[in-house]
Amino acid sequence: MESFSLAAEQLSPSLVAEIREKTTGPVLVPGDDTFNEVRKVWNGMVDRKPALIIRCQTVNDVITGVNAARKNHLQVAIRGGGHNVTGNAVCDGGIMIDLSLLKKVQVDPEQMTAKAQTGATWGDFDKATQVYGLATTGGLISTTGIAGLTLGGGVGWLVRHHGMSCDNLISAEVVTATGELVTASTTENPDLFWGLRGAGGNFGVVTSLTYRLHPVSQVFGGMILYPRTEAQKVIRHFREFMATAPDELTLYAALLHSPNGQPVVGIMGCHSGDVSTGESVLKPIREFGSPLLDTFSEQPYLQMQTMLDGPFPHGNRYYWKSGFLDELSDEAIDTIIQQAETVPSPLTPIIFELYGGKAAEEPEGGTSYPHRMNQFDLVVISNWVTPEDDEKNISWTRALWEAVQPYTSNRVYVNALGIEGEQRVREAYGKNYNRLQEIKKKYDPENLFCLNQNIQPGS
Q: What are the structural domains of the chain?
């Protein structure tokens, strides 16, 4: 296998000139006015400096970047939304293929489909589809890119009602490692399509995605906050309630802090079916205990989709731990609440997510996303502002994760996985890892696309 390694800080002027001649979008090198701004990603802890950034305006620009990286044995990073915690959207010393200018979304309201370029965020996508009262399962934060979320599975407020983002994928256009543009669907390159629906960017640069849409405009959603002293009762009640909740309801619980810094426990989510039905379904949750705040109401889906944007701004420092629990037992709840008492940053939430519903069903053609069981996903999003606080926040997160190990299932959702080693990558892909290795061998045998939760090509 050839090695795609880090390049020197600067590429040869002749190679830069050749790339510029073949592309229509801006090509940036260190020292250019916008270079430092463009190389930044969502996680402020990531500070990498590529030797060259191609700001693609056409698919041909993407092909040029892929070919240049392969022929010159350069590491290549693919930036869609740049929102993933690992920062794999940017590399040190190689080529960064930046898709963020490619964000066109074309909606076909009669067929109830949308074709979107992969520089689009869910905010871009939702604004286009909501014109027609349509949506598909998208992220919980509107600045998240559609591509990274979908290719890893994709959860959001519609996940129990309409399945995962990847379940709603109809087709994808992909630039392969050889620089060829191909279509992947259940009828064209179905093996690649299966792999794309859950295994991230391991097989190529996805330049557009076509989704199935669903009628969604008004939802019944919001958030309830209780004093942290009520956390044990609230989370247990949430657990019991969700055991029989309808598929139209996606609801999460979280240990967090209110805007004024008060430790609280929250319930958040939405019912995306009939609004009046949603109000009655949520009664047992809203009438429980003595909440400090209840914002549940009928609201536009666009409003629901931006509810969590504020607490997770671009440029803060983030460190995640995540994994599925065998069960949300009383002991697990108590351990997590105890660990939360020492959290160093009031910006850090501990979230209990439950998918299930439609997401537990395999769609037509199958997907490489493997975790279709009805288990709670524990997601710890450490979030702080200054580099001086790195050590204490990272140490606290690791200590919490160590404390909950007796309750975890050795399964992890790939989009919530940090840089945690090959064994955790295998746990993310689960039973499908060996089949994914064969697809990797077919479409990217030299592992050009290695900046991801990487699948090694089959031998």
A: 13-98 (3.30.43.10), 105-215+427-443 (3.30.465.10), 218-416 (3.40.462.20)
Name the helix (H) or strand (E) containing 76: strand 76-79
Specify whether the CB–CB gap between 446 and 2 falls below 8 A: yes
The band of 350, judged by pLDDT with boundaries at 50, 70 and 90, is: very high
pLDDT tens, position by position, 364-397: 999 999 999 889 999 999 999 999 999 999 999 9
Q: Given a cut of 90, is residue 7 above it in pLDDT? A: no
* Sequence-ordered list of residues with C-beta below 8 angstroms from that of 246, at least 6 positions apart, any chain: 271, 273, 281
Q: At what angle do helices 390-403 and 330-340 cross, to 10 degrees?
A: 160
Distance CA 398, CA 317 (A): 16
Cα separations in angstroms, 17 against 11, 25, 30, 72, 83? 10, 13, 15, 14, 30
Q: Please report, rounded to a whole number, the percentage of residues in the chain having pLDDT higher than 90.
A: 96
Its pTM stands at 0.96
- Nearest by Cα to 380 from 342, 436, 423, 434: 342
- Among 394, 243, 244, CA closest to 328: 243
CA-based radius of gyration for the chain: 22
C-alpha 118/C-alpha 104 separation (Å) is 8
Report the candidate in 346, 333, 345 with the shortest Cα–Cα distance to residue 389: 345
Those residues whose C-beta lies under 8 Å from the C-beta of residue 36, and which sit 6 or more positions away, are none
